[in-house]
Design a protein that fits this description.
The chain is mostly helical. Helix content is 80%, strand content 0%.
């Protein structure tokens, strides 16, 4: 029962931080498409960068409460995080260009829809691959 409660607490925290990350992503995308007048591809790339940096901080600190703080572990953890996020960022960019530039779907609705898909994929990757819990004394990064 206790394990299930912790699992739901983590999922709820990820959901809350995911909403915040999505807001960062949407606002940044809107700013670069509507104010700066950049292309869909560049706006998505900039939005991805800002959202990924924000997501790394909140996921490490609040969601998964990762305590690894040696320089070696931080480098490996952040590299793993951004490797996974780059894959989802490429997917997001390609999907946005196809949906908006080729299919002429509404920008912000597509950004939200694609963002939901990416958020779910990122949670699974973060949980399984990046921010795994380790026992005291156990090496995570071998």
């Amino acid at each position: 029962m206790k394990g299930r409660k912790i699992k739901y607490k983590e999922l709820a925290k990820y959901g809350l931080c995911g909403i915040q990350t999505t807001v960062v992503n949407l606002i940044t995308f809107w700013f670069f498409t509507e104010i700066v007048k950049l292309s869909t591809m560049l706006s998505t790339a900039f939005a991805w960068f800002f959202a990924a940096a924000f997501a790394y901080y909140v996921n490490k600190t609040f969601v998964f409460e990762c305590k690894r703080n040696t320089l070696r572990d931080l480098i490996k953890e952040s590299v793993s995080f951004f490797e996974v996020r780059m894959l989802s960022g490429i997917f997001e960019t390609v999907a946005m260009v196809l949906l908006i530039d080729y299919l002429h779907a509404p920008k912000m609705w597509m950004k939200l829809l694609v963002g939901i898909v990416v958020t779910v994929a990122n949670y699974m990757a973060s949980k399984v691959y990046i921010f795994q819990k380790t026992k005291i004394g156990e090496k995570r990064w071998g």
